[in-house]
Design brief:
Layout (H helix, E strand, L loop, with lengths): L9 H18 L14 H29 L1
Helix pairs in contact: 1-2
């Protein structure tokens, strides 16, 4: 579980919720929506990690599609 400080602001909770939605979308195969959060903190680091994962999965899927076309 994500351990947010007790004094987390509504905007921080909102950003975390949007990252949860992005992670859920990625897990369901929706790789079309970039994950962008303009922050220089741990939440921003998490958003960047999710975006790297999305891009990596997108590239892997494209490689698989190319193999299938070439087979």
């Amino acid at each position: 579980p994500l351990d947010l400080p007790k004094a987390a602001t509504g905007s921080e909770v909102q950003v975390v919720f949007s990252l949860v939605l992005a992670a859920d979308a990625i897990s369901m195969g929706d790789l079309d929506q970039p994950v962008t959060v303009e922050r220089n903190d741990e939440i921003g680091d998490l958003a960047q990690a999710l975006e790297r994962m999305r891009l990596s999965l997108e590239a892997a899927m494209e490689r698989l599609r190319k193999r299938r076309r070439g087979a």
